[in-house]
Write a structure and sequence with these properties.
Length: 181
């Protein structure tokens, strides 16, 4: 029976070691679950939530019209105001700019703003920037007529200049088409 007792002790020792390993691994699993929960909370805080764009006044005050956007001829095409990460543009009411006049849709909206938005979305998907900082834009219209453009999260100074010059160029081309008709 001596050999039976030795075997029993070995089995009990193995069982004890396995129980110890299980407890240690369960502790590691608890720690890993806590780490995952903390990472999830951080993800929610930084971007996997629907950002609520700040409400802004979409009317330019008569006293503060902002930066005038002029054609090559010096005709005022509209006014632009820049507040934090928001660009607000209002065309002059006497000019009937519509979204169908080239090159507004194809150039300004799709090529310039669309490409910037796609770049931001790719960076956000790669974790380089929060989803709440992706460029977004909205064109306000009355029927087909443009009454305002709001651009949020435009980014740095270089992109601001690119948006300003592209908008100015597109509006100038649209103005040329308006006066030809």
């Amino acid at each position: 029976m001596v050999s039976g007792e030795d075997e029993m002790r070995k089995l009990l020792k193995i069982r004890q070691n396995l129980d110890d390993n299980i407890r240690e691994l369960e502790g590691e699993i608890r720690d890993l679950r806590k780490a995952i929960a903390e990472i999830d909370r951080s993800i929610v805080r930084q971007g996997f939530r629907n950002p609520v764009p700040p409400k802004i006044e979409t009317q330019l005050d008569s006293e503060d019209k902002g930066i005038s956007v002029k054609s090559k001829d010096g005709v005022t095409l509209g006014y632009m105001r820049i507040d934090d990460e928001i660009i607000l543009f209002k065309p002059v009411e006497s000019l009937a700019f519509t979204i169908s006049i080239p090159p507004f849709q194809a150039f300004f909206l799709e090529r310039v703003l669309g490409n910037m938005k796609a770049t931001d979305e790719a960076k956000a998907a790669g974790g380089e920037t929060p989803f709440g900082e992706v460029l977004s834009f909205e064109v306000e219209t009355d029927s087909d007529r443009i009454t305002g453009i709001t651009i949020r999260n435009f980014g740095d100074e270089r992109r601001l200049r690119e948006i300003q010059s592209s908008l100015r160029w597109a509006l100038d081309k649209m103005y040329e088409k308006l006066i030809q008709n």
